[in-house]
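Troubleshooting log. The previous structure file for this entry was overwritten by mistake, so regenerating from the original sequence record. Sequence copied from the archived sheet and checked twice against the printout by T.R.
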Amino acid sequence: SSRVLWTLAVTQLREKGEIMVDLSEAALKEAWLDVKSDGSETNWCLFGYSPAKKDQITLVGKGTGGLSEFKSHLESNKVLYGVTLVRAVDDYGSKRAKFVFITFVGGDVSPLARARVSTHKPQIENFFNGYHIQLYATTTEEVAEDAIVDKLAGCAGAHKPQRYEF
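Regenerated output below.
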């Protein structure tokens, strides 16, 4: 069963010492700070695993083209982690930044690589401190404005925006 495969994969990772993930590449922190900066037009960043080292995270991309540009970098054979900026807009012209942390595990990713996500994701979540919601997706269709709006509406509290800008 898939649970047995997952347990076996996690055990193998622990034995190999691959539980920790390396987020030391300077470009990672720079990209995340760029997305969070009010003075920057960068509104997404995306990280993935280095082909050379399975525990090394590298910058896949960043940009100013919003969710659609972010989605264009997702590949079915990769595990990717990223953040996209969404602006909550109310009738008074107020725009509030909302950060969406996205874990993308493509449908063609191996069981071992899928298992690695469960061990690496907590570190990556901590790296992206300050995000508002998270989304887990296995297809680009699941990284959808509707899904994000539903999650944001669930955590909006008393201040309900009229719309969201992606």
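The helical segments are 2-16, 26-36, 66-71, 111-127, 145-154. Archived copy saved in two places this time.
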